[in-house]
Amino acid sequence: MNESAIFDAGRIDPALRVSLIVASDRTGLIGTDTGLPWHLPGDLRRFRAVTMGKPIVMGRKTRDSIGRALPGRFNIVLTHNPDYRADDTCVVNTPAAAITQAVEELKRTGGNEVMVIGGAEIYRVFFPRADRVYLTLVDGEFAGTTRFPTEKFAHYPFTATSETVFPADEKNAHACRILILDRTESGPAWTWESIQNGTT
């Protein structure tokens, strides 16, 4: 998938906010062959709250790992496979088509935000067009196979506009920091290292 296609797609609706939502460990790890490397019910509730009622864009592998369309959201799957089908899901073959479908849904329901929920290649292709990143930074380093494209922060500057720390508890085995990172045109930008350390 061509990253530059996202910029053309942005002309469809300049008011549209494209947001990535992701949970990662300190190294940028976001997944294994079977799903998430951790179990954090609190963060899953937050994911549901932030994405509810909005169009969500995902890759085929993410959709298959979930196993169903996420209720209360307009599910869009971006895949190279023109024959792919899934119940209660809009299937598209280009990033521009994903944005177009999201805009049409937002016209119907109101709002201006589309949520990109993974996996790694989908994050990578939408990063140049992203206006916001909702990041859960899980305390620890885990084994896995899929990584968030953290190197993109060096090319597309973001700054933290919100940060909340959640300690581990009896239901959530790992502490985490939840950040909202907004695209910035001026001022200090956050690298992946500064995101981990909490400093620009």
UniProtKB/TrEMBL annotation:
EC number(s) from the headed UniProt entry: 1.5.1.3
InterPro entries assigned to the protein according to its UniProt record, in alphabetical order: DHFR, DHFR-like_dom_sf, DHFR_CS, DHFR_dom
SUPFAM superfamilies referenced in this protein's UniProt entry, alphabetically: Dihydrofolate reductase-like
Pathway: Cofactor biosynthesis; tetrahydrofolate biosynthesis; 5,6,7,8-tetrahydrofolate from 7,8-dihydrofolate: step 1/1
Gene Ontology CC terms, in alphabetical order: cytosol
Entries under Pfam families matching the protein: DHFR_1
Keyword Oxidoreductase tagged: yes
Residue ranges occupied by any DHFR domain in the UniProt entry: 17-183
GO molecular function: dihydrofolate reductase activity; NADP binding
Biological processes, Gene Ontology terms: dihydrofolate metabolic process; folic acid metabolic process; one-carbon metabolic process; tetrahydrofolate biosynthetic process
Top-level EC class as recorded in UniProt: oxidoreductase
Keywords: NADP, One-carbon metabolism, Oxidoreductase
Described function: Key enzyme in folate metabolism. Catalyzes an essential reaction for de novo glycine and purine synthesis, and for DNA precursor synthesis.
UniProt similarity note: Belongs to the dihydrofolate reductase family.
Protein name (database record): dihydrofolate reductase
Source organism of the structure: Fimbriiglobus ruber
